[in-house]
Amino acid sequence: MQLPQPRGPVTAALRRALAGAPHELPGNLVAAAAPPGDPLVDEDLQLTLHLCYELHYRGLDGVDEGWEWHPSLLALRHAAERRFEAALRRLVPLPAAVPPRDVPRALTALVDADDGPELSRYLAGHATVEQFREFVTHRSIYHLREADPHTWAIPRLAGRPKAALVEIQIDEYGGGRAERMHAELFRTTMRELGLDTAYGAHVDAVPAVTLATNNLMSLFGLHRRLLGAILGHLAVLEMTSSLPNRRYGNGLRRLGGNPDATRFYDEHVEADAVHEQIAAHDLCGAYCADQPAQRRAEQTSLVLFGAACALALDGRFAAHLLRRWADGVSSLQDQRSLAGALRA
Description:
Elements: H1 9-18, H2 27-32, H3 43-54, H4 71-91, H5 103-113, H6 119-125, H7 129-143, H8 148-151, H9 159-172, H10 182-192, H11 208-222, H12 227-239, H13 242-254, H14 259-290, H15 293-326, H16 335-343
């Protein structure tokens, strides 16, 4: 992945630093990672997190691999993460704990109570080709590494929950066949829509609200203390997938998409209907049941918190797209205004 363009003073300084050998970052850079305002739409903060997290995925072109665990970079990431997580906890109060047997029911209740905007319905029946291309551009930030943030949870689990997560991930990774990996199916969709399919090619094009949905998975996946949250996140991802993906596929067919273009969405309609049950019962329910009595309530709340955060940030993402399209403008980043803000 190429180093993206900066979006503020922190990412400008970070970009310059990452271009050289690992060294101590200036102390004031850590303080600058916590400016006032809403962290969930802070372009500089969300790109800072994305860059720091990417060092734990495939890395950044031309960036020394020694940066991944450099103490001063971790200090910067920690400062940005604290602000991000605090905003999440303000947005989504920690749900009350329920008995482990009720976890699947509680997850279903969260999904049923979600009244976020119907982005999938709009894409199915009203979106233009250009709007659908924008949607795919936004989603490429995750789908080109689909399943990877959740895979970090595998070595932290045991027994039935571990087997359940592995079963889900095997499907996500195509059952060992590279051409069936969901990331590769999505790359085909992008190719059919005439988009650049390179990993990370569209980071500069997407706004903070999109980066936040991806940073959420990295935050939960990288921190063992948030293990329950990444499991809840995955569960709600699977539980809210089948119907929207059916609509995405139908919308793309309406716009002339061929079977190669729609295969990614069609694949998810059937697979995620099965994954939904595994994730809710065998993964999240069993994980909570396996917890020691003194940790059970805490971990159950954390599973539901992760699920609620996934719904909340995805709702904000969908609202951004629909609002911009209703105004007749692109939902992607305006590079000229961003450059102007950076100069200011």
